[in-house]
Each structure stands twice: as C-alpha cells, then as structure tokens.
Design goal:
With 474 residues, the protein is an alpha/beta fold. The protein has three domains: 6-129, Fumarate Reductase Iron-sulfur Protein, Chain B, domain 2 (Orthogonal Bundle), CATH 1.10.1060; 145-239 and 406-473, FAD/NAD(P)-binding domain (3-Layer(bba) Sandwich); 243-403, FAD/NAD(P)-binding domain (3-Layer(bba) Sandwich), CATH 3.50.50. 34% of the residues lie in helices and 18% in strands. It has a five-stranded parallel beta sheet with strand order 3-2-1-4-15, with helices on both faces. Helix 7 (90-96) runs antiparallel to helix 9 and helix 10 (153-164) packs parallel to helix 19 (453-473). It is globular.
C-alpha cells in the first residue's frame, strides 16, 4: 500500500456524467473520465484490508487491492496483468458492472468506497492507449475443436480461455455481429460498440473463428455440431422475455423492451430500418413496465428519441433510500438505485400492477393500473400480492415491457440437442457445467437464468476450465 493514510485524507471522487442537456441529444457514452493524476489518487484510497471484502464480493475473484496499488504507482502494465488474470474483459465490466466489489468495500460503511469500477475501466483504457494490449497467440494447438454457441459475455469468455489453452474454437452467432446483449441490449450511451469491436478484433487475431448470421438448430443442425466438434458450449443466454397477459397486449405500440433497444442499437450501427418497422418514442408518452436496468435503458433511449414524457412503474415496493437494515454491509444493499437515465427525467412509481391496456383504432392510448400491497404469510414467510381495488389510468402512446427474462429459447438448438432442463427451463448442468448430453456444456444465463455480465464472464471461464479438463483427459 503506497499511501496508508490516503483513505483518511482523500475523499471519493467520481468522474460523473456529461450534462443532461448535452447527452440526451446523442448516443455517446454518458460517463466521463478523470485525469490520470486524480485517478491515481482514487486508487491510493484502497486500504488493502486484511480481509478484502471487495475480492469476496466479486464473482470473478478480482484482486482489487493488488491492481489498485499498481495503478497508484502508475504501473499500468502490472495493473492490467493483474486485472486480466481474473477478468477477460475489464473494458466491459468497467462500464456496465453494478460494482458488487464497491458495495463490499470496507469504506462503503461510510458510503465512501474506492471507485473500483472506474479505476478498472481506466486501467484497461490506458493499457490499450499505451499499446500494452497485444494478441496472445497460442504457441501450439492441441488438435481439439470446440464450438461455442452464442457470443455474449459467457460465450466470449469461454472461447477466450479455451483458445489460450490451444484448442481451436469456433463461435457461432445468430446475429450479424458478436457481443450478445452487450451489443444489442445495452445502449450505446452506456457501452460504445467500438469497445466490443476492438476486443473481437483481438480475439480474431488470436485465432478464434467467428461465424455470424448462423443459428445452430436452424441454419445448421445441432447433430452436425456434435459430429464435427470435440466439445460444445451452449451460451445462448436467457432469450425469452417475461410477457404480460392482459387485455390489449396485442395493440400497436406495445413492445418488449429489447425490441426497442436492439433496433436503436442497430440504427446507430448504420442499419436501414424501414419507417413502418421503426419503434420510436418521438412525440409520445412512454410507459415502461418494469423497474430494473432494462427499464432504465428504455427511459434513456426514449429521451434520446424525443419522447414527451416517460413513466416507469414497478409492482414491487420502493426500496429504502441510502440504508437498508435488511441487507447490511458487506452484502449487496437492496436500496433505491437512480441511474443516469433516471436523472434525465422520469416519473417513477411503485406498487402498481398492470390490469389492462386500452387503445383506439388498434393503437395503445392508455394503461389501467391497480395499487397493490405485499403481505407476509406468517406460516410460510412468503410475501403475497394483495390487490387493493384502487385503479387509475396512465396515458401512454408507447408501452415497453421490461419485466426480465424467464429462460433460454427451447425451440431449435436445445430441442435438437436433447439436453435436460431444470424447473425454470434453463439447461440443467452439474458442478462441472456439463449438461445431460455427452460433451455438451452450458455457460452463463442459458444455465443460470438472467444474471449480471460479471457473473456470465465468471461462468464462461469456469466452463472453459471444465471443457479443457475433459479434452485433455482424452
């Protein structure tokens, strides 16, 4: 620890966001950066605790104290080496991870944790800028071939680790470019897609083959993949969105959140979407149903498209502000989260259940909602939903369903593979990430259900280790 008193004398300083008046007119990243000296000072605040709860909180097991010290000493090469020893893609997690490590930071007991996520992003960006990120081409090949189906964070991490081991890896992606929801779900204002392109170019230089616009189970039979490859990793994500079974669901102007987000990201990338197929919030009153990150992304996108207003509703109670005794440090605090999109303007409401969607001439015009309450069952401890009967109508010209995802798509790949699924219809795997079918493994959301990018990368790494173990044993 280079400066043992820094946490006492230097306050937490965040880079902050670009001004709202500027950022809502473009899709550039909203988060700013600190200058290198301020960033070094922020890294110096790390206390290198005897029990590093930041490390304990991180699904990847990142060694935050070690690379914070390297950053403080301006050793970017050393910091990047330590960082990438556990995290394949710090440029992704440094932008979109909710920073579980910061919630576990001992300084978070005073709500002044080290700016770990920002520091992480700063390290990787400087490493790229200074030419420290170079291709790692395996010295030899094992002769084993692995198919990774899906190029989201889990698939990319799995492919990266297996390629480093010398196996020949082919990544099959049904879309026109790699990244999964990193590319097509997360808005550009949170993650510029050039960041993904830069990493994919590096992976290609290292020998990974990417095959785009190829959906295994449709364009290629799953049987062919099982025949031609020594191992298969299913990393297709949790692609089935949770739907709303109410009157008026089929009205024009009611869409799943990803329909809006994916289309806007494609437009930003230069895709030509016919006017009749465009989903736009321009000049409309937007209602986002679902209070999570995807809903927040819809709020920010709606502002950039020129909406009149945005309302976001959630069926659960409003989380506590600042402190929650039910989730004390060092656990993840269940408290109110206000995103950069919320700061741009949004009427946020809780304890509302959608009862009906109504419209005129086939187009949505309003949504009827009902106030609800949650009551704990003294016998089981479960929380039960209570409808109060108090209803109201919210004006809406565009309704976006952002209520999460239920499970991976069953049709096509999973049906053809014949893998066993669990009660939630995720691919059932054992402790070694193996499915019920020989040489077929599953990683990320396809096996666990919808989760965080950082958890998917961790799952991809672990799955790659198990695949390598199986291949080398043979």
């Amino acid at each position: 620890m280079g400066n043992p008193k820094a946490f006492l004398t230097i306050n937490r300083k965040e880079a902050g966001y670009r001004p709202v008046a500027d950022r809502i007119h473009d899709y550039g990243e909203v988060e700013q950066t600190l200058n290198p000296e301020d960033r070094r000072l922020q890294a110096s605040r790390c206390m290198e605790c005897g029990v590093p709860f930041c490390h304990w909180s991180c699904p990847l097991g990142n060694k935050q104290p070690e690379w914070q010290d390297r950053l403080y000493k301006n050793d970017i090469k050393g910091a990047y080496a330590l960082l990438t020893a556990t995290d394949d893609f710090p440029e992704f997690t440094g932008r979109v991870c909710p920073a579980l490590c910061e919630k576990g930071c001992v300084l978070n007991k005073q709500h002044e944790p080290v700016t770990i996520r920002e520091n992480e992003c700063a390290i990787v960006e400087r490493a790229f800028l200074e030419g420290l990120v170079t291709p790692h081409i395996p010295a030899r090949r094992t002769g084993k071939r692995v198919a990774v189906i899906g190029s989201g964070p889990a698939g990319l991490a799995c492919a990266n680790r297996l390629n480093r081991k010398g196996h020949s890896v082919t990544v099959f992606e049904k879309s026109e470019a790699a990244g999964g929801l990193l590319r097509f779900g997360i808005p550009d204002f949170k993650l510029n897609k050039s960041v993904i392109d830069r990493r994919i170019a590096l992976l290609e230089q290292e020998g990974i083959e990417f095959r785009y616009n190829v959906e295994v189970g449709k364009d290629i039979p799953a049987a062919d993949i099982l025949r031609d490859y020594d191992a298969v990793c299913v990393a297709i994500g949790s692609g089935v969105p949770r739907d709303l079974n109410v009157e008026g669901r089929d009205l024009k102007g009611v869409h799943f959140a990803l329909e809006l987000l994916q289309q806007q990201n494609r437009v930003n990338a230069g895709a030509d979407i016919p006017a009749g197929e465009r989903i736009t919030a321009k000049g409309k009153h937007v209602l986002v149903i679902g209070g999570g990150d995807t809903g927040s992304d819809c709020v920010g996108t709606s502002h950039r498209q020129g909406c009149k207003s945005v309302t976001q509703i959630e069926i659960m109670p409003k989380p506590p502000v600042g402190e929650n005794p039910a989730t004390p440090w060092p656990y993840w605090p269940v408290i109110l989260k206000t995103s950069s999109s919320h700061e741009e303007g949004c009427d946020r409401r809780w304890l509302l259940d959608t009862r009906a969607i109504r419209g005129c001439d086939g187009k949505v015009t309003e949504v009827e909602v009902e106030e609800v309450e949650w009551e704990k069952d003294p016998a089981t401890g479960r929380m039960n939903l209570i409808h109060t009967g108090r209803t109201e109508v919210i004006k809406a010209d565009l309704v976006l369903l952002a209520m999460g995802f239920t499970n991976p798509v069953q049709e096509g790949l999973l049906e053809q593979l014949g893998v066993e699924t669990d009660a939630r219809k995720n691919v059932k795997t054992d402790a070694s990430h193996r499915s019920s079918v020989d040489k077929v493994f599953a990683a990320g959301d396809a096996a666990t259900g919808a989760s965080l990018v950082v958890r998917c990368i961790a799952s991809g790494r672990d799955t790659a280790a198990e695949i390598d173990r199986m291949l080398m044993a043979k």
